[in-house]
């Protein structure tokens, strides 16, 4: 699932391409991705609307449209937004040469929005789990901000310490809980805890302030590093131009089970925590007793 660095990269790219453009029409072969309103109403409401701004809130992408409307897109497990041009037939084919047409991960086009300059915004989603909503700015923002904690890149250490310390769950679980802190998922939780030399199994509320400080600093460092690398493209995620990010070439633990730790050469291990994999170094991140 695209996490904070991937979503922020997408927003930054699209801001340069679609701001000020009007949406003329849309196409889909997977209407179930649209959660609200009904498909017919969606077409009427979105027609001719100018894209005034694009923002990231947690892992959500918000398109601010004319008439105080927001189109929210959550890319979920395998979705990613693309900017290009497609021919719609029995199969949807990219007219743009390069990764948009050659990378298999970019071929699962489920939604296309036609823009007034001849270009298109597309949503590729292998598993068909992405979510699209269109509603008033007031309603979308109200519902979203109620369900999310502070942004991982913006939260102060004081608030981070107070929020983390409330929970008797593993620090790995708490870091990934969007109601606690917004933006971190499986990849970066593993990377952050390795960077901080903290075991993913430690209970969040048992962590001392100096340990929380290390996690906080590692969180900022890793997320900024991944953002600079345009995200992680191990599986489905791609930039809007169809290209891969390259943080996968920089990662230290995520999906490196059995490979040597970059610090101590011990073999990276993988264990499940509440149905989610945790990758860690058993020596560098040893639980202190």
Describe the protein's architecture and organization.
This protein has 289 residues and is α+β, with helices and mostly antiparallel strands. The chain has eight helices and 13 strands. The chain has helices spanning 4-18, 39-46, 99-102, 137-147, 157-164, 171-176, 186-196, 209-228, and strands spanning 22-28, 34-36, 49-57, 60-65, 69-74, 79-84, 86-88, 92-94, 109-115, 120-125, 131-136, 269-273, 276-280. The strands form three sheets. It has a nine-stranded mixed sheet with strand order 2-11-5-4-3-1-9-10-6, sandwiched between helices. Strand 12 and strand 13 (276-280) form a beta hairpin. Helix 1 (4-18) runs parallel beside helix 8 and helix 7 packs across helix 8. The radius of gyration is 20 Å and the shape is globular. It starts with a helix and ends in a 9-residue tail after the last strand.
